[in-house]
Write a structure and sequence with these properties.
Elements (H helix, E strand, L loop, with lengths): L1 E2 L2 E2 L2 H10 L3 E8 L3 E2 L2 H16 L5 H12 L6 E8 L15 E8 L8 E7 L13 H12 L4 E5 L5 E4 L3 E6 L2 E5 L7 H13 L3 E4 L11 E6 L3 E8 L2 E2 L5 H11 L4 E2 L1
Parallel strand pairs: 7-8, 7-14, 11-12
Antiparallel strand pairs: 1-2, 1-6, 3-4, 3-5, 4-16, 5-6, 8-9, 10-11, 10-13, 13-14, 14-15
Length: 263
């Protein structure tokens, strides 16, 4: 873990740990230093830095720091780029920001992951269009679901509309069409790459409102995020799905075949 290219100290992390103000993106770096959707990850960092800190992030520096970090780890790896101001003052957060760039890495899974068992929970992230570090509610609901024997949690809003998962987007299959929920959620990088794949392959898809009561009419479901790509869902609450649908397997294979962009 490094901040602006040097080892992180406890003092560096105090503002982030105490005030939890910042944003991030997580990307999977494959062999050869390639990242699927790299430009989308960088666009996210640029957008969110303007939104939270009011400054333009140095994207060349971001790429340099990520390249530096991956030279010290085994690939593939999951790299997280977190942008926050180490000098943030809780009493005066309106002063000019000078955000730092923290890069951390963790091992990436390489095997086939089993289909997910999910529980629904009513929760809406604050400022959902920004991938911010305010993860208390997300972790609380994920922890509660796992303590009750589920793998993860699916969020619905106060009108029982499906939005997103703890750290992923969700899609459903009905009558041969892929349905992305239309709600207030974070449009993930992997979701956008999968949507591009479907456009090129002629697979029908649509963004529609989906309520929890309508999930039972769906034929299948899957989640998307940068760490795992496309992963099927086997159940949501008491509703069970067939996980090995050909369309899901096709999307998994085609997503894995995306060569990625060089860091």
């Amino acid at each position: 873990m490094e901040l602006n290219g040097r080892p992180v100290t406890p003092d560096d992390l105090s503002a982030l740990g105490l005030y939890n103000y910042g944003h991030f993106t997580s990307m999977r770096v494959e062999q050869g230093g390639r990242v699927r959707g790299l430009s989308l990850h960088l666009d996210r960092l640029l957008h969110d830095c303007r939104a939270l800190h009011g400054v333009v992030l140095d994207m060349d520096l971001v790429r340099h720091l990520v390249r530096r970090a991956v030279t010290a780890v085994t690939l593939p790896t999951i790299v997280r780029v977190t942008v926050f101001d180490p000098a943030l003052d809780l009493g005066h957060p309106g002063t000019d920001a000078n955000p730092g760039i923290m890069v951390s890495a963790r091992p990436a899974s390489t095997g086939t992951l089993p289909a997910l068992k999910l529980r629904s929970a009513q929760y809406e992230r604050e400022l959902p269009e920004v991938k911010h570090v305010g993860l208390f509610g997300t972790v609380r609901h994920r922890r509660a679901a796992q303590l009750d024997g589920y793998d993860d949690v699916l969020f619905i809003d106060d009108k029982s509309r499906v939005s997103e998962g703890a750290t992923w987007n969700v899609a459903f299959l009905r009558d041969g069409k892929v349905l992305w929920p239309r709600s207030n959620w974070l449009p993930g990088v992997t979701m956008r790459l999968v949507t591009d794949l479907m456009e090129r392959a002629g697979i029908d898809f649509e963004n529609v409102e989906i309520t929890l009561d309508e999930i039972g009419a769906m034929e299948a479901a899957f989640v998307t995020n940068a760490a795992i790509g496309v992963r099927p869902i086997r159940s949501i609450d008491e509703i069970k799905f067939v996980a090995n649908r050909p369309i899901i397997s096709r999307l998994q294979d085609e997503y894995a075949a995306i060569p990625g962009e060089f860091l």
